[in-house]
Amino acid sequence: MARVILLGTAAAVSDAEHDNTHFLLVGDSGTPILVDCGSNPLGKMHKLGIPDDTLQDVILTHFHPDHVSGFPNMLMQLWLLGRQKPLRLYGLNHCINRVEDMMIMFAWDTWPDFFPVPPHRVLERSGAPVLENDDLRIIAYPTRHFIPTIGLRIENKHNGRILAYSCDTEPIPAIIDIARGADILIHEAAGEGFGHSSARQAGEIATKAGAKSLYLIHYQVWNTDPTPLVTEAAQTYSGPVALCHDYDEYEF
């Protein structure tokens, strides 16, 4: 079965036990896809026994520091480790353009024998194709956040099971479409307000979408106990609810 491996679960203010939200998608063929880029994904992959040269694809959901700040350092690390094969980058035009500008600031065009990073721009519309490999089919939906952002719907092509990821968003109908009938819904719980959702609202989305399970991510951790978020979500959703933790793995 395919797996999602959580490398970080915190909202924008992380702490020593929680990195910013990012994760790996690993199918049966064993070629991981990195979704967003926390502080040190390569170090975590090494700890998990996943070779860095197996990473072929990176999806960046939006250009906020807690989602992209580790990307320049990861590229430098891969270059210093001798990578030669391309690393494909996927994201909205808004994000890709700014990532390229950021890398120009780091003068990546002067790094000798630097490997290719071909960009693949995702259309900002519901159901936009992101990527497809032997194991997974991934489509994107725009969310409602401070800047253009995408949530993801990931299908395991071998068994039809669905993993849905809200990313950063207020509750909007597109998130119900992402999560409709999903076997696993990973939904942010940073707190109700512009651009974000509470655990209660995440539960409401899971109920409306008919999701089979709900996992809360991108929650506040600084001087905060996130444990009550599970009870809060259970007020509006009757299915299984869990709080995500760094290094959790879920099969789908």
Principal-axis shape equals globular
- How many individual β-strands? 14
Helix share of residues? 10-25%
Strands side by side in the biggest sheet: 6-5-4-3-2-1-14
Give the name of the CATH architecture. Answer: 4-Layer Sandwich
Look up the CATH topology: Metallo-beta-lactamase, Chain A
Could you tell me the strand content as a percent range?
25-35%
Low-confidence stretches: none
The CATH C-level name is Alpha Beta
Give the biggest beta sheet: 7 strands, mixed
- Integer tally of domains: 1
SSE run = EEEHEHHEHEEEEEHEHEHEE
* Average pLDDT, all residues: 98
Number of helices: 7
What report would you give on this structure?
This protein is α/β, with parallel strands linked by helices. The chain has a single domain, classed as Metallo-beta-lactamase, Chain A (4-Layer Sandwich), CATH 3.60.15. It is built from 7 helices and 14 strands. The chain has helices at 41-47, 65-68, 71-80, 93-105, 173-179, 199-209, 228-234; strands at residues 3-8, 22-26, 33-35, 57-59, 88-92, 119-122, 128-132, 136-142, 150-156, 162-165, 184-189, 214-219, 241-243, 249-251. It has a 7-stranded mixed beta sheet. Strands 7-8-9-10-11-12-13 form a 7-stranded mixed beta sheet. The longest helix is centred in the middle third of the chain and has 13 residues, at 93-105. It is globular.
What's a concise summary of this model?
The protein is built from seven helices and 14 strands. It is an alpha/beta fold.
